[in-house]
Write a structure and sequence with these properties.
Elements lengths: L2 E4 L2 E4 L6 H7 L23 E4 L6 E2 L10 E3 L3 H16 L15 H10 L17 E2 L4 E3 L9 H8 L6 E4 L6 E4 L12 H5 L5 E3 L12 E6 L8 E7 L2 E7 L12 H4 L15 E4 L2 E4 L2 H19 L4 E6 L4 H11 L11 E5 L21 H6 L6 H13 L4 E5 L3 H5 L1 H10 L2 E6 L11 E4 L8 E4 L4 E5 L12 H11 L9 H11 L8 H4 L4 E2 L1 H6 L1
Helix pairs in contact: 2-3, 7-13, 8-13, 8-14, 10-12
């Protein structure tokens, strides 16, 4: 392993590592624009120039490999003058758009100017090169050619990741610009990633454009819940409102990217159709009810139905959008009190995807359920016939009460298929985050949280268990799913005290073999394979 000295700090690095990566490991930032760890090296911005002893010219750190005995300076006067000169060239024709630019607050031109330049312009009179502004590239992305510094991250991404090559460079010198290739439009399933990797304000998101300044937004790590891949994301939010999702690096799951469909998924979990308080049916209408009365009503009815009809009179259908913690507690709810006849307690996982669901070989899975594997690891069947068996038993009158968690059976399976079953029930409890068509048949509706509003875990298609963090509380009087289920368990006589989702996961890890040895600490922010996935690997 080569021994390298960077800014007076000596360390060993593996052979072939680039200087920019080596410095990064030592906590030394080498400024850069064109280099991106997920793309090939272009070496065209020249911002990462460093001085290497015994090498006459400055070298670019992004494409210079470490060698034994190398001594590198990244912050001396010679390097600083080079950085200032590069920034001056980049800013000569750059428009002074900062007050109205969406990239303000996360722009590398702004950051590096403050860190490495801070010089007044020597271009006060000359006319800047004019280029096109507000260029519509596709459904997700807008281009401002004047702001572009030609780092070519966007063109390399499109050439190398989705391999669709919609963008190219045209003209030469200071007249060069990025634009659509002839006959093409930026409309692939990963198009918005070019916005994430653009280091300046040249490529902006149509969805996020002019909605909020980034310095007002809070950022919470999470996992995308709109397909079985479980891409790692960051949720940008303020005062209980989500403004955008952006991908978060995880080499085991999604690298640096995410799809456009997942990115826009935040719209589905907030809006006017959210349930904000419990309701109970009185005649033909659902009326608001306090939480204590709602919990008491559900528990009293379930106890009465169980006493009259036995264990098999109560069943549950659980959406594969539920977290592992919610699934564990839901199974416990349907099996309480525990008995030798647990199999007689009917429970099914509802893992529904549209018939025309899209998938590819990159990130997008045709299975649009984030936690099908988690339900199966807890012994909850997720095949369509499992749900149908429960519905058929309800039609026959065998099942008297049904608890549905997170599933809109009417909208997803069709009214013709489920209406007779739901109308035959004596008691239907719907626990969901939104007002749905199924609520028209419910006796009690209990509002719960989305994955952005609760702590928990999902298990992706490969068996990797990953954390989601609560970005903000659910709206109104809605309750986190794990907390709601623990209140129902307490009402049914379960004496276990659950103070947090972490405590629920710890109990699940003790009782369910697929999660043994895991904890929130071991999962951290990158996740870990479940026991079953680790064994198969």
């Amino acid at each position: 392993m080569p021994k390298v000295t960077i800014d007076g700090r000596e360390a060993l690095f593996e052979d072939g590592l680039t200087l920019i990566r080596a410095a990064e490991r030592l906590g030394i930032e080498i400024p850069h624009y064109c280099w991106h760890p997920g793309l090939t090296i272009a070496g065209n911005c020249r911002m990462c120039l460093v001085e290497i002893d015994k090498v006459p010219k400055l070298q670019i750190a992004c494409n210079t490999r470490v060698t034994d005995g190398m001594v590198v300076n990244t912050q001396n006067e010679r390097v600083k003058r080079a950085q200032q000169s590069v920034l001056e060239f980049l800013l000569i024709n750059h428009p002074i758009d900062c007050p109205i630019c969406d990239q303000a607050g996360e722009c590398k031109l702004q950051d590096y100017y403050m860190d490495f330049d801070k010089k007044s312009s020597r271009f006060p009179v000359e006319e800047k090169v004019r280029k096109r502004k507000v260029v519509d590239l596709g459904p997700q992305v807008v281009l401002d050619q004047e702001r572009c510094i030609l780092c070519l991250r966007c063109t390399r991404f499109l050439d190398e990741i989705p391999k669709t090559s919609e963008l190219g460079v045209f003209e030469r010198g200071d007249r060069a610009y990025i634009d659509l290739a002839p006959g093409k439009r930026l409309d692939n399933p990963y198009s918005a990633n070019v916005v994430d990797i653009c280091p300046v304000g040249a490529l902006t998101s149509k969805d996020f454009r002019f909605k909020a300044r980034v310095w007002y937004l809070k950022k919470t790590e999470s996992v995308c819940a709109f397909c079985a891949n479980g891409c790692n994301i960051e949720i940008y939010h303020r005062q209980g409102r989500i403004f955008r999702f952006r991908p978060r690096y995880n080499a085991e799951v999604n690298d640096y990217w995410m799809c456009d469909a997942g990115r826009m998924g935040y719209r589905l979990i907030q809006g006017e159709n959210r349930s904000t308080g419990p309701q109970v049916r009185q005649g033909d209408e659902l009326r608001p009810l306090a939480w204590k009365q709602a919990v008491d009503t559900v528990c009293t009815r379930l106890k009465g139905i169980r006493e009259a009809g036995g264990d098999g009179a109560i069943a549950g259908i659980l959406s594969a959008f539920a977290t592992n913690e919610e699934a564990f507690l839901f199974r416990r709810l349907l099996q309480h009190p525990p008995s030798a006849g647990e199999d007689s307690r009917s429970i099914a996982g509802h893992a529904w995807s549209p018939p025309d669901a899209y998938g590819d070989d990159l990130l997008i899975k045709r299975d649009k359920n984030p936690n099908r594997k988690g339900l199966e690891a807890l012994g909850i069947p997720t095949t369509p016939d499992a749900v149908e068996r429960i519905l058929e038993a309800a039609r026959r009158g065998t099942i008297k009460a049904l608890v549905v968690f997170g599933a809109d059976l009417v909208a997803e399976l069709g009214r013709e298929q489920v209406e007779a079953a739901l109308e035959a029930l004596e008691f239907l409890v719907l626990i969901d985050l939104r007002r749905s068509e199924t609520s028209l048949y419910a006796d009690v509706v209990m509002p719960t949280s989305s994955f952005a509003e609760t702590d928990g875990t999902f298990t992706n298609h490969a068996g990797r268990v990953q954390r989601v963090w609560q970005a903000f509380p659910p709206p109104g009087d809605a309750m986190e799913g794990w907390r709601l289920l623990t209140s129902l368990l307490a009402g049914l006589g379960d004496s276990t005290e659950w103070g947090s989702a972490e405590e629920v996961f710890a109990a699940m890890a003790r009782e369910a073999g697929a999660f043994s040895g895991l904890s929130y600490q071991t999962l951290a922010n990158r996740g870990a394979p479940s026991s079953a996935a680790a064994k198969t690997a």
